[in-house]
Amino acid sequence: MNDEFVLRPIAYFHSPFASKFGIPKQSGVVPQLAGTVVFESAFRDVHALRGIEGFDYLWLVWKFSANPHDATHLLVRPPLLGGNEKVGVFASRSPFRPNPIGLSSVRLQRVEWESECGPVLHVLGGDLMDGTPIYDIKPYLPFTDSHADARSGFTDLSKLKHLDVRMPAEFSSAFTAEERQTLLAILALDPRPAYHAEDTKTYGMPFADKEVKFRVIGGKTVEVVSVER
């Protein structure tokens, strides 16, 4: 019996991130991060979205399209464990999976019913790269999707840490107020790979059509050293 089937994108996600580097490692951790969902021509119909404005959150089912190779390992290194300790791929949210499928909960900010691309969803808190294909959208239902007392495995012991961020005014002025607020929140989460701990290295991160270069000082402070177009 052959249970394989072909998924086709129904939409594409658009965000300030042109590459994987710097994208929040989970949806919702940067709640102000804005993005849009633009539908493919076959689904640019208001009937496909009838009633969606009544939901505050949506589930996006999407593809890890930027992964250059197939996943071959059943053990992965979650960033919250420092990038060195291994757990099973199905006990993690690693992007390197047998089927490269992602799942994100995003806040529905508004529906733009009329645009040159048909209806467009404006969402907040996404963790998707610009151009990510989306396979399905489902409403988030608090009465069944939220489990406030649930255990969270190894993440219960490895909470996200936030660093201080220093960005000189000359660099801040390169962004809108909304972009600046979002960028500061992203940098505070330390975008470096978990296994990188060098304070002397300068990292570059594409954001909002600019290249943001930064370094981490003493493991506690992120300093922006340049912003280039």
Derived structural class: mainly beta
Query: SSE string, helix = H, strand = E?
Result: EEEEEEEEHEHHEEE
| Number of DSSP E strands | 12
Summed up, the helix count is 3
Q: Averaging pLDDT over every residue, what do you get?
A: 91
Give the helix proportion (percent range): under 10%
| CATH C-level name of the largest domain | Mainly Beta
Largest sheet: 6 strands, antiparallel, barrel
Number of domains: 2
Kindly report the CATH topology of the largest domain.
Elongation Factor Tu (Ef-tu), domain 3
Domain TsaA-like: 7-149
Keywords: Methyltransferase, S-adenosyl-L-methionine, Transferase
Family: Belongs to the tRNA methyltransferase O family.
Protein name: Methyltransferase, YaeB family
Task: Throw out a few tags for this protein.
single chain; 229 residues; mainly beta; Elongation Factor Tu (Ef-tu), domain 3; YaeB-like fold; 6-stranded antiparallel β-barrel; 12 strands
Structure description:
With 229 residues, this protein is mostly beta strands. It folds into two domains: 11-154, YaeB-like (Elongation Factor Tu (Ef-tu), domain 3, Beta Barrel); 161-228, RelE-like (YaeB-like fold). It contains three helices and twelve strands. The strands form three sheets. It has a six-stranded antiparallel beta barrel. It has a four-stranded mixed beta sheet with strand order 9-12-11-10, covered by helices on one side. Strands 4-5 form a two-stranded antiparallel ribbon. Belongs to the tRNA methyltransferase O family. InterPro entries: TrmO-like_N, TrmO_C, UPF0066_cons_site, YaeB-like, YaeB-like_sf, YaeB_N_sf. It comes from Hoylesella timonensis CRIS 5C-B1.
